[in-house]
Design brief:
There is one protein chain. The protein contains ten helices and no strands. By secondary structure, it is mainly α. It has one domain (about 30-295): Rhodopsin 7-helix transmembrane proteins (Rhopdopsin 7-helix transmembrane proteins), CATH 1.20.1070.10.
Amino acid sequence: LKHQKLRRIMQTVENVTSQHGDATLLCEKWDVLILVITSLIFLLGFIGNLITASKVIIEKKLHKPVPVCISCLAIADLLTLCFQYARVPLSHCRIEVSISTRETFLNLTAIMVHSSAMHIILLALIRYGLIVHPFTMKYWLTSGKVVIASLSFWLLSLAMGLLYGLYNRQYYLGNIDEHTDAIVQLTIALYILIVPICFFASLYVVEMKVMRKSLLPEKSFYIKKISKMISLIMVLYIAFLAPYVIADSLRLLYMKEILSMDQRRFETMKNVMFNLARVFILLNYSINPFVYFLFIR
């Protein structure tokens, strides 16, 4: 009986394939490999972020500004990870969805991505405060203020998502051409990458200037540990998001005919770059919990 059921399923697949041709197979071999890799990353990231957020919420001893900020980032990363992972089969498999569904999905993804980036900035600000104003921050910064800052960033991300939604509507209505869209997508990628970097770099320069002039005793072991953790998170953030910026840049350069090569070669290169970018961006939202447990035990 089992063999008969299996034979019927295989026959159904063959019928669908014969009706639509080989080109309509849901996923190619290379796509399946990408799906397997991204699924493993997603699973690890989902569990890691969920444990991180839950641990901080449940354990009262972790109800401190830095762990609470980490929990807020973990929640943002968890939601972003889910939406970014869901984009993988949509990009690699021939799954038909309505334009309205695609628009809604992209708009929600934009909100999550922006929120995650804003929480990276929040971590950079806390790092700055701990290093430059350690005594003031000890009494001024509270878990409640971190939560309020997190909610403010979510509201800002919602506003940015609505703006992106208005743009998407015009794009799907055919009012925006592919060249313009390539420029907009690159601009968004640069914004998500560069804004946190600029905040971090600017604050770092100020930190170094203040520390050179300061007569305060050497930073405590805890502050050093937190500073290193946040610095590592920033470095990984840059490394994992850079491939998307590179891929979008190459696409725009080709469209502007600055990058000259035959179309087939370019399509191969573009597919490889965007495949790497999708893997790396999932790593970005999955790796942070392991960084937390490395520095905070």
